[in-house]
């Protein structure tokens, strides 16, 4: 399987309001994919559609080769960890594991027990008494113990302190190495994406602005600073531009070497790249072939 998710003209409407519309993208298998974009871009709606929690209003969506229709066989393939890392406050850690085993035919009880022990969680402790970081780790454990082919995480560390975020993401990456599954991680925190993701999608207004392997994106994007210019050669695709009376600064995407000595050329960080695309909403930069944030 080359893709874990394929959407074509996908839309979701609540009454007269469209939360997602005309969204087309492809997410490749075998990657930890960072999904980034501003509030209202449709990220959470897209992920809930992929997890089978919502039904599309229009368009087509396939996940792991099937329809995310809520069937038992499809649900078993996909793990989902929401932003609020939900847990039942009145249930103990152990009771959560028993519930997970009852609901998931592919449940890996040994993985769940070993992970809870490694985290130092008391199986008798009620979830309502756990810290935010501990609840997030419990939610991740439940998602991993399903042994999914695809794990979807919708801003799972947004409310956690830096240490808890690091521990959560470290646990996620260890699990990816040990069990070899695909991940789609939505986050506003680009530093977290730099730490974990090898593939990036920038989603703005339901449209993919850019997508591709992180290393390739960073190697083909540059910041040019030099004398004021209004135009660049056609092989230098302008992502963003700022001008003063005498100086121009462009962020460009190009596969060609830059030989013009009048330009000072600097490499971008992942945050630079994301912000450049988010600064120019409404422009689709992905090109005719998708290489695959809300």
Automatic annotation (TrEMBL):
<dbReference type="InterPro" id="IPR027417">
    <property type="entry name" value="P-loop_NTPase"/>
</dbReference>
<dbReference type="GO" id="GO:0005524">
    <property type="term" value="F:ATP binding"/>
</dbReference>
<dbReference type="InterPro" id="IPR003593">
    <property type="entry name" value="AAA+_ATPase"/>
</dbReference>
<dbReference type="Pfam" id="PF00005">
    <property type="entry name" value="ABC_tran"/>
</dbReference>
<protein>
    <submittedName>
        <fullName>ABC-2 type transport system ATP-binding protein</fullName>
    </submittedName>
</protein>
<dbReference type="InterPro" id="IPR051782">
    <property type="entry name" value="ABC_Transporter_VariousFunc"/>
</dbReference>
<keyword id="KW-0547">Nucleotide-binding</keyword>
<keyword id="KW-0813">Transport</keyword>
<dbReference type="InterPro" id="IPR003439">
    <property type="entry name" value="ABC_transporter-like_ATP-bd"/>
</dbReference>
<keyword id="KW-0067">ATP-binding</keyword>
<dbReference type="GO" id="GO:0016887">
    <property type="term" value="F:ATP hydrolysis activity"/>
</dbReference>
<feature type="domain" description="ABC transporter">
    <location>
        <begin position="5"/>
        <end position="230"/>
    </location>
</feature>
């Amino acid at each position: 399987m080359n893709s874990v998710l394929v959407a074509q003209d996908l839309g979701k409407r609540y009454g007269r309001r469209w939360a997602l519309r005309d969204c087309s993208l492809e997410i490749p298998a075998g990657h930890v994919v960072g999904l980034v974009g501003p509030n209202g871009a449709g990220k959470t709606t897209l992920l809930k559609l992929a997890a089978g929690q919502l039904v599309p209003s229009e368009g087509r969506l396939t996940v792991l080769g099937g329809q995310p229709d809520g069937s038992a066989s499809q649900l078993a393939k996909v793990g989902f960890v929401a932003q609020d890392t939900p847990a039942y406050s009145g249930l103990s850690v152990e009771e959560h594991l028993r519930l997970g085993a009852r609901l998931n035919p592919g449940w890996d009880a040994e993985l769940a027990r070993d992970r809870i022990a490694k985290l130092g969680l008391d199986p008798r402790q009620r979830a309502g008494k756990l810290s935010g970081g501990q609840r997030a780790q419990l939610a991740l454990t439940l998602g991993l113990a399903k042994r999914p082919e695809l794990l979807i995480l919708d801003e799972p560390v947004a409310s956690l302190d830096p240490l808890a975020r690091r521990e959560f993401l470290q646990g996620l990456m260890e699990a990816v190495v040990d069990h070899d599954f695909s991940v789609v991680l939505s986050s506003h925190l680009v530093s977290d994406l730099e730490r974990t993701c090898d593939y990036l999608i920038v989603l703005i207004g339901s449209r993919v602005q850019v997508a591709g392997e992180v290393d390739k994106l960073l190697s083909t994007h540059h910041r040019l600073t030099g004398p004021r210019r209004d135009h660049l050669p056609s092989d230098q695709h302008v992502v963003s531009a700022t001008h003063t009376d005498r100086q121009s600064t462009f962020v460009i995407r190009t596969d060609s070497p830059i030989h013009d000595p009048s330009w000072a050329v600097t490499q971008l960080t992942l945050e630079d790249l994301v912000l450049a695309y988010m600064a120019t909403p409404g422009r689709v930069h992905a090109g005719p072939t998708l290489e695959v944030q809300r």
